[in-house]
Every structure is written in structure tokens, then in C-alpha cells.
UniProtKB/TrEMBL annotation:
Residues 125-282 form the Formyl transferase N-terminal domain. Residues 74-94 are annotated as: Disordered. This is phosphoribosylglycinamide formyltransferase 1. Pathway: Purine metabolism; IMP biosynthesis via de novo pathway; N(2)-formyl-N(1)-(5-phospho-D-ribosyl)glycinamide from N(1)-(5-phospho-D-ribosyl)glycinamide (10-formyl THF route): step 1/1. Residues 81-94 have a biased composition (Low complexity). It comes from Geodia barretti (Barrett's horny sponge). Its EC number is 2.1.2.2. GO terms for molecular function: exodeoxyribonuclease VII activity; phosphoribosylglycinamide formyltransferase activity. HAMAP family: Exonuc_7_S. One of its GO terms (biological process) is 'de novo' IMP biosynthetic process. PANTHER family: PHOSPHORIBOSYLGLYCINAMIDE FORMYLTRANSFERASE. Keywords: Cytoplasm, Hydrolase, Nuclease, Purine biosynthesis, Transferase. It holds the Pfam family Exonuc_VII_S. The lineage of its organism: Eukaryota, Metazoa, Porifera, Demospongiae, Heteroscleromorpha. It catalyses: N(1)-(5-phospho-beta-D-ribosyl)glycinamide + (6R)-10-formyltetrahydrofolate = N(2)-formyl-N(1)-(5-phospho-beta-D-ribosyl)glycinamide + (6S)-5,6,7,8-tetrahydrofolate + H(+).
Amino acid sequence: MHSMTEPITDAWHAELAAQPFEEVYRRLEETVSQLEQGELSLTDSERLYVQGMELAHRCQQLLTETELRITQVGEPDDGRSTASAPASSASDDCSVASRDNHVLRVGWFSTGRGEGSRGLLNFVCQAIADRRLDATIDFVFSNREPGEAAGSDEFFRLVQQYGIPLATLSSTRYRREHGGGGMNRHRAGFDRKAMRLLEPYQPDVCVLAGYMLIFGAEMCRRYPLLNLHGALPDGPTGTWQSVIWQLIESGATRTGAMIHLATEQVDRGPVLSHCSLPIIGREFDADWEAVTDSGIKELQAAEGEDNALFRRIREEGYRREPHLLLATLRAVADRRLQVRPGEALDGDGEPLAYMYRQGLPLTDEIEARSLPKRRD
């Protein structure tokens, strides 16, 4: 019988590591129950809370290991093995369990921080369910773990609703357990551990959708990593917020979004596709006029992201980004595009940049076929 407030020692960790999921989960339930009773001293409550976090983390590790023990079910014509994933009760399952040998296999990386991450995943899963995209999502990987943040927990629930295998590895915990400091010093080790978790899967492409870490060289060589960046290929780099402020500061007349292959050089890998839109004209004139006599620092301090021009540029880009991602995945599924780690090729296997220096121009397709018409 465990003392609920015993100190966490190496022996405590060793015992925990040897226990099956059922026992760890039982201990976690007991811990939560005792905390909820509120009868402990402050010191014992703090100690019990730390124990609870350790138990929750171990439960997640065991669940992830179980999910990744996939069963080999056959050999496709190209010699690669296929696998079954955990069954799902979701009627619109877009996981590996529903695929055949000819669909595009997609891996999905996301920190899952907020509405944008959920929106992109939901958009693509709905396209798969509606047969607008011949693909399946083999796995979702996050650098957060359950219980780490409310936003990512909501994202994880969406993943589970779609029946997609979920693998998590907390970058925050990894840094803490390996001496602290910034992610730069831990990137290679973290990526290797993530790749070991994902070894059972063989995605054709991977999507970075709100993934808040930069990949190292090994990860970029392992997977073709499609990154959505909210700017044109020759446009600003950085976060979407930084991009918009740079557009305003330079008085830009156009912006857009692109899909490029992730490399160690941030936002500058080979471009697969792009779409563009004007940010001048009748809808924008009044907002541009309002910032004419203000410097960027002044605007950021006074209004920040509530500035009308900032919000309008973001809204117009945000409406198009999911459609650009979907159109690009369709181009890969249809073999109009071929992707390999670090390489963007056309349907004939030639470098895409020979014909399309800025990737496939998908503006017309998105505006005419995909983008819902706005009501004035």
C-alpha cells in the first residue's frame, strides 16, 4: 500500500515504471480523490499534486506505447507494409484504419494551441470524409501532452473524435529533464525521440499545422514536411503576426500564403504552392488611410492586433489558408506534385522550380472553386 504523500525518489520512479497501466491509473484516481477532499496540509497537498502530475504523465506514456503497437495486416504491391490503427467509433474516421493502398498517407504535426489548429485539422478531415481528398491521416503528433494546456487538450479531443492515433512528447518536460535551457540545445535529441515514437508509421507527406517548434536536420531528412506560411514566397518571414506588421510597415499591396517544404532555414524551403490576394482597394482604403500618419511602434502600442487594418489582412489570409492546404494535398494525391525530403518535383519528377519558381499558382482554383463567397 502506498503512502499518498510519500516523497518522490528514484525508487518511487522505478516502482512506477514497472507497474501496468491499470495500477498507475488506479493510483492517479486515488490521488485526485484525496486532493479534492481538501483535508491535507499545504505541504502534503503540493507533494500530492506533483505525484499526480507524474502519474498522469506515466498514464499518457503507456497509452501512447499501446497506440503505437500496430498490427501488420498485409504487404502492398510496392513492398511496404500497411497497418491497422486503433478502432474508432467516429462515423467520419479519417485515420489509417480506413485507407486502401492508393490514398495519400498524411502525418500531422501540431502543438494544438488554439482555434486555428483545430480548424485546419477539422477542415482536412471533413474533406477526407466528403471524398474531396483521397487521403488518410496516419497520426497526429504534438509537442504537448494531455493536461499541459487547455487549448491543446481541446485539440486532442478532436483528434480522438476522428479516430486518429495520437502521439505526444512534451518539449517543455523534455527540456526540464535534460538540463533546461532553450530548445536550440535540445532540438536534435527531442527530434530523435519523436522519430522513435513515430517509427511504425510511413507517411507520404507530413503537415505542420500550428507546430511551434523548428525541426532539425535529421527530421527534415526523414519526412517531407509541408509547412503553411502566411506570406507569399518572396514575402516576409516570421510569425503570422510579424508578417502582417511588416506588410503594414512597408505599405504592401498584395499578400498571400504558401506551402513550402520545411528545412533548417525557417520559411525558406522549396515552395510547393501559393495563393495571393490584394490588400488595397475599396475594402481596404479606409483602413490604410487610418494608419497613414502612424508609425508601427505607435500602432502596436495603441491598438495592437485590434487595429482594423491588421484584423482585415488577417481575416482575408485566414479564409484562404485551409483551402490552400487542401488544394496542395490534392495536387500531391493526384501526382501533379511530388515531394521528397527537401525536394519539390512536378508530375514528371523534374524540379518544380524549373517551371514554377514560386510553386504551383493556386489562386484561381481557390478563389473560383473552393473559397466561399462573402456576403456584403
